Amino acid sequence: MVIYFVFLTISAATYALFSLGLNLQWGVTGLINFGHVAFMAIGAYSTVLLSMQGVPIAIAVLVGICLSALLGLLIGMSTLRLREDYLGIVTIGVSELVRLAAKNEAWLTKGSFGVQGYPVPFNFQPDYPVRLGLIIWLTAICGLALWKLWLWMRGKTPRYIGGAIASAFVLTVCVCGALSLYTYDPRAGLMLLTLTTLTIVYIGMEKLVNSPWGRILKAIREDEEVPRALGKNVFWYKLQAFMLGGAIAGLSGAFYAWQFTVFPDNFEPLITFNAWIIVMLGGSGNNLGTIIGAIIFWGYNTITRDELFKMFFRTLGLDDTQQGAFRVMIIGLVLMLIMVLRPQGILGKKEELTLGR
Q: If you count Cβ atoms within 10 Å of the first and of the last residue's Cβ in the chain, which end, N or C, has fewer?
């Protein structure tokens, strides 16, 4: 059970990291990207293929981030002057191009058989003092998360639901993670690395979004003619946001590869739309909301796979294949209700909403 929760934590943190890139592109800047998974695929393949050739993991991840940013540059240079709907069409086409290239260029990507047997970080057996240090490290991250949630919830009654869910998740992560680190399972080390990276990216994103640079991006989202009239290079700011969002998704690709497996069909458009669900559920333009949205999304995804729910689904006459489709249908229904009842998401601000503008 503890190891399974470690798996859930890594998955939720990886998707939160992936969705933070989309939140920067769409939630903050207003750029529609239906091919966000292409950046994750580039990051995942670059990391594992280079590390299999003896390149240090840290350098392999950095190369994956740079290649993902380069892909964002190539897409942005050719599309960011187009209307938003054209940008969405181009990005989903690029994501499918990347996936099909990975599937067919076996000389580079091993084709449909996928890449296996690559090194992963924290795959060692530390002694007791190192384990204790890792537990303290995890406790500090969880404490920082709880403090941030407490500051955010204070005096804001409507925020208690999302904050309570996230706080319960953080406390469970701290307990299960500490147990796994004490007995030491390599997946616990990967969990700690994922949470550390997510914390650093979140803090950096918060500083950027609330800086003058971030305020220009928000102005572009609302009406790009206003910053253009003030002498700002709108295209350049859009390009920066698109590249940075792609780089963050490329970073998440490394964790996706270490957590799951690297097969071309693991990078289908559904992964992008899962990120859209997370961003819209948590609140467009809100980084903390994106993280909470990832927790809720993966919590739902995990609970509905429990044997008790499977028995309930079977009483409805649904086989295993139909159960998967039914879970997706429920997510779609919940998303529709959110768009009607609270279109800004759990933590989003209605005055910043750009849907329907």
A: N
